[in-house]
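Weekly structure sync, notes
Attendees: PL (lead), two postdocs, one rotation student
Agenda item 3: pending single-chain targets
PL asked that the sequence for the first pending target be pasted directly into the notes so everyone works from the same version. It is reproduced below exactly as submitted, 876 residues in total.
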Amino acid sequence: MLEKNFDFKTAEADVVKRSKEIIAATAVKNRKSQTFTITLPPPNVTGSLHLGHAFTSTLQDVLLRYHRQHGDVTLGQPGLDHAGIATQIIVANQLSDQGVNWQEIGRETFIKKVWEWKEKSGGCIVHQLIRMGMSIDLDRLRFTMDEKSSRAVLHAFTQLYNDGLIFRAKRIVNWDPALKTAVSDLEVTNRQEKGTLWYIHYPLEGDEHQFLTVATTRPETLFGDQAVAVHPDDERYRQWVGRNVRLPLTRRIIPVIADEYSDPEKGSGVVKITPAHDFNDFEVGQRHSLEVLSVMDESARLNEWVPAEFRGLSVTEARKKVLAALEQQGFLEKAEAIQHAVPYNDRSGSVIEPRVTDQWFLDVKKLAPRAIQAVKDGEVQFVPDAWKHTYFDWLENVQPWCLSRQIWWGHQIPVWHTANGKMFCAMNEDEAIAQAAEYFGVDRDRVPALTRDPDVLDTWFSSSLWPFSTLGWPEATADLRTYFPTDVLVTGFDIIFFWVSRMIMMSLYFTNSVPFRKVYINPLVRDEKGQKMSKSKGNVIDPLFLADEYGVDALRFTLTQMAIPGRDIRVGASSVEIGRNFMTKIWNAAKFLERNQCLELREEEKTGGELSFALNRWIVAQAVAFKKKAKQDLEDMRFDFFAQGLYRFMKEIYCDVYIEGMKAGLANASPNVAAEIRGVARGVFLEFLKVAHPVIPFITETLWTQFGCSGMLLTEPWCEGPLEAADPAEKEDFYISVTEEVRSLRGLVGLSATEKLHLVAAVPDSFLGENREWFAALARLDSVECVKALPKNLSGLYFAKGSCEFCLKYPQELDLQKAKEVFAKKIQERENEVQRLKAKLSNEAYKKAKPEEWAKDAAAFEQKKEELQRMEAVRL
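Predicted structure, written out during the meeting:
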């Protein structure tokens, strides 16, 4: 007996428990030898579930469940990222709360503390993903710092180093002065803030009365200036190029250079070039062979290279004092308020300072061409296709990748140094000693002292190996042979640069294969107002709160329905209500079937052969078309179309049409026909459960069991059910479209849905007469009269459908004049809509700027135009 309402909390716990062994088994053996693999992007070990995770994981799981049902050997490879900086901050703060200075306890002890934290508190997000219905095998869970991953990382670094692709150099990097480490571009957030543009005079050498005026937001860095630059085509300053100016507050002389980096339209058109403290300036400095002079220490305090009165000052303190000195000495012309981007470290909250330091780099320029070609040749496809241009833009202009971080938690760089700077790269210290012994020509016990490089690798280095390291590489494992290359990567556009491109480069380099065949770029999740979610705005929505309130199925369905390619999605509690209402519709349909003895299929109700009830033939044809379309939608990764198709089939086809007609059919059917109706109603509903399962696994598994079916939907095949359509049921489809026309006409003349009407139909055969009960029920008619030709002077609404003519007779009390006015108004509204869309579609700029929206409007235009033509053909 089905409960009054779907108890989603009980169902979720039950289904997760029952699914565990089946999920593991289908990654080893299934009905076919074809494999389907998704290596899940590893969430941070420090993380907890947010809506972005919920969205991405839902789409991944839809694909995994779909392929599992289709008999593929299916693997969703889970894992966790060690999140170097984020984890170090968490553990360091916890130790500080306990009165322990993490730096004083030493590296080895600190690392032990991190592992203790990881075992106790880290990785809760994996269990939250399971709660969201992710059908992943926890026995295969990998961690970027586990033994196998660490071996893969060391192997990759060593090979790249020996092949000359990894090098150590002094280059400019993003520097966090609070953490005292280089950080990834991905960890830098540019915030728009109010700022100031200061205009500073740089006097001409030999003539202090002539000067160039430089506009800058960073006056405190002027001590590191190596030149001032003007645009080569800027007539105002052409005569200055090649001359020298004096650096204010110092006696140092620097040249005036011509470089296209200087923008004549910005500020004064003159910029100071400080190669050690600005990424663009560093590139200008390289082009003009300028010295790289760093005037800040690792804490972003001015160092010994500045005048004594400024040494040791922080950026804020130095800026105030430098500006005061500039004004006092007559170098400061003016200050101008501006809005500008200030870089912050997401993790620490510190302002990022570009800084030149010794770091380890990977020369990705040498790896990029092959990765570009792989996408151009279609070995890797982006969905939507337009995102490949973002990928190309990045790789065609790629810079060396800074691999090193000055922290303790992570993969320590496998390089050992001698006191005089000789380096040996090896898998372990023993191998490094052997290399040194051979190099110096001495016994092992006479090798000079070796010290391991203290830096650790950027977290993204281990992540770049993820698709194949999780499968056992560098060993030639059975898993690697079976599941690699993987099939689909589902991820966000913001890490195409940092992760997608690097995985492709590394995979091609180490395995001679692409890591995945498709990259699905999911939209960004925003709040209901379209704003990006952030803790500071207070608009972050906890998906587990939504799941507790509405159920996981409702949330998954909502997110899947919103996965429109190329668009950000807006999610709020009201959005998930739609999903909750759909789950209620499915549950209520099942309860109707139960009330009508369809829950348990008796032997005499099994369907087979020709169906006698017309609506049975129609619903079977609809079900077959529905499954075919659903399959194509998932193959195309149009998750939104797939979810919309589920909704349309269950609500508009099965419930609104079939169940309504079924009621009339059962009321008037013989025992044999009634048995046929019950069998088809049950069979089609079960087919729907199979197709819907990838999106809404909990309600579908629960109803599958309640209907007395064996096994789990998790592995139940889609297209091997008992229902087959002998023909497309064209005649049934035609007459159902007539019922829709009748219902539409009611509204067009202001008649209520409960008004009992009489239809006169001029039809060529006996079909309508033989099926008038369900036809009248669907059209909400009191009676149906079939004739060979419509009598003249009938008082009613005349309309045609195909070769048939119909007259919907007016009720006696109808105000005909008012009905005509209502009808004319509706026609005018529809005509206005058609003209509005026509004008919109004629705008070529709109078509080029928003092709998907233009296509949607074009489809709406054709639909509205057809509706208008039908309305104009109606006679009152």
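Discussion points:
- The radius of gyration is 35 Å.
- Residues 172 and 355 are 5 Å apart (CA to CA).
Action: rotation student to compare against the earlier draft before next sync.
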